Amino acid sequence: MWTVRSAAGATWLAGLVLAAAVGCQRPSMPEEERLGESASRRSPAAAVVPREITVEVAGRDEYDRLIASHRGKVVLVDFWSTGCIPCLEQFPHTVALSHKHAEDGLAVISVSLDDVEDRKRVLEQLRAQQATFDNLLSRDGMGVASMKAFDIDGGLPHYKLYDRRGNLRYSFSIDAQQPLEPEDIQRRVMELLTET
Amino acid sequence: MCQRNVFVLGLVLLTVVLLVPGAFGGKYNKAIDVGDKGPAWEQLEGVDGKQHSLGDLKAAKLVVAVFTCNKCPVAVAYEDRLIEFARDYKDKGVALVAINPNGTENLEQMKERAEKKDFNFPYVYDATQDVARGYGATCTPHVFVLDGKRAVAYMGAIDDKLSDPKEHYLRDAVDALLAGDEPDTTETRQFGCSIKWKKQ
User: Fold this and answer.
1) pLDDT-derived band of residue A33, with 50, 70 and 90 as boundaries?
2) Using a CB-CB distance cutoff of 8 angstroms, which residues of chain B are in contact with residue A113?
3) Most buried among A94, B23, B139, B199, by the most CB within 10 A?
4) How confident is the model over A159-163, as a mean pLDDT?
5) pLDDT digits over B11-22, tens only?
6) CA–CA min distance A4, chain B (Å)
7) Res. B196: pLDDT tops 70
8) Counting Cβ atoms within 10 Å, is residue A84 exposed (0-12), middle (13-18) or buried (19+)?
């Protein structure tokens, strides 16, 4: 029985089959660089430059420009809200990743779904979390408009991962199909950092 | 060799997928689609100490199931709206049921919350999280309106914004259904805190 969704699904699958067929002709990938080894050879005194913690009100346009400005780096985006306890619990893992892989080429962006009027509270939370990376505050607050603007399906916290060419490679909340642990996010970050 | 095998596999998958109803879920729901029968919950314990099943609500014109919890500030902020909704629609044959699917919460906390806010609707505990999984619930709050045949007629967000909402999706959907019409909007993006899933 052909519904709109079945037809869409069929088109998607046909495209997948085509892509896979084309993909078989790609040359084999070079060996992965071992990030762990290179990190241990690096000087332990490599200083983290102190950076003022700020937050900018933004919509999708500003967000896209910010992602593009990090071309050449892997970008991890953490979508959160001060009104979301699971988000506040997971945020330290995002901060840890930003420190651990800064020199490997990881850029981190946080996007808060809070009211613009609550900017001060958002900034307080970012300071408490030591979020020394790019921080945005959705101008549409906590609601359907923000979810739509940033293509968020599911609950918060929500994460997106862009590769060094600026392509969106992962977009995920923590849902029933994939109860993710912080290690799973780290693994995906590593995957994109080491691919050529 | 590689190309042909992939092509054949793709065709097989395509065939399988087309034959499976609801294989793609809704726009923002991986488990079910608008029009699918809402999975029935059986014997969920409520804060009133009784067991609750969807079948108990046969007499209701519509059933509104909302996944919510005690600790997510977003869900808590919507409690007052749910209380108002129950008050406005109870006598119109609409049964509201709140379901807590959070792996880190328990019935005792739910009882405290229900008493404190004087909930005017059943508040039941989805201990195994099977009901939440069956509905494709992803966050709290996440609402599902079931029509007279208990098929999903609307699912997603209660309204369009936590503070100062302009679109009242749940009420609009319910009003349309009570008038014998289809809702204009049948699915929206739900927003709130992710449900805490227990490791299986």
Assistant:
1) very low
2) 191
3) B139
4) 98
5) 777 666 555 544
6) 11
7) yes
8) buried
ipTM: 0.85
B72 to A16: CB separation less than 8 angstroms, yes or no: no
Least CB–CB distance from B192: residue in A5, A115, A155: A155
Mean pLDDT rounded to a whole number for chain B: 92
Longest dimension (CA), chain B: 67
Please report residues of B whose CB lies closer than 8 A to that of A141.
161-163
**For chains A and B, what is the number of CB pairs under 8 angstroms?**
139
Mutate which of A13, A115, A151 to disrupt the B interface (most B C-beta within 10 Å)? A13
B112-167, pLDDT tens digit by residue? 999 999 999 999 999 999 999 999 999 999 999 999 999 999 999 999 999 999 99
Distance CA A164, CA A143 (A): 30
A32 CA: distance to closest CA in chain B (Å): 24
Closest CA to B176 of B166, B167, B186: B186
Q: Provide mean pLDDT across the span A180-185.
A: 88
Residue B112 identity (one-letter amino acid): E
Which distant-in-sequence residues (6+ apart) come within 8 Å of B150 by Cβ? B37, B38, B40, B54, B63
Using H for helix, E for strand and C for coil, what is the string for A142-173?
Answer: CEHHHHHHCCCCCCECEEEEECCCCCEEEEEE
Q: Which of A6, A176, A177 sits opposite B18 (nearest CB)?
A: A6
Residues facing residue B66 across a β-bridge: B98, B143
The answer to whether residue B1 scores a pLDDT higher than 70 is no
